[in-house]
Amino acid sequence: MKILDVGCGGGLLSEPGGSLFLTTINKTHLSYALGIIFAEQIAGIVPKGTHTWEKFVSPEELESLLESNGLLVQTITGMLYNPFSGYWRWTEHTSLNYAAHAIKSSAKVETEEHHTKSPGIDGQEASQK
């Protein structure tokens, strides 16, 4: 799996203890039904084609990916969107959307020389193991 190189050299993620926060969609049948079928095709909450099923990722897969790149996952928490109120709320369920917080490990796992570069999003370089 490829990780987008977001150019963190000298930034918080290059320092031990630096934090990374991200949100994404879990890869479940429920998230497909609600995220693509309902949100895009039925309710029109987001434009058609916004989500790509192949890019959805499970919390376990994300945790493995982050840890293999020198980040220690601190927490994973579910998120739930209410289309009627327009608000998000935290939940213990990660079957749809979830947020993750990881910190840069103090142990040096890999150096930049050990990464190969391949085209990423919009032609930018992406690190690939």
Automatic annotation (TrEMBL):
The keyword Methyltransferase applies. GO terms for cellular component: mitochondrion. GO terms for biological process: methylation. Residues 108-129 are annotated as: Disordered. The keyword S-adenosyl-L-methionine applies. GO terms for molecular function: 3-demethylubiquinol 3-O-methyltransferase activity; polyprenyldihydroxybenzoate methyltransferase activity. Keywords: Methyltransferase, S-adenosyl-L-methionine, Transferase, Ubiquinone biosynthesis. PANTHER family: METHYLTRANSFERASE (PTHR43464), UBIQUINONE BIOSYNTHESIS O-METHYLTRANSFERASE, MITOCHONDRIAL (PTHR43464:SF19). NCBIfam families: UbiG (TIGR01983). This is Coenzyme Q3, methyltransferase. It comes from Sarcophilus harrisii.
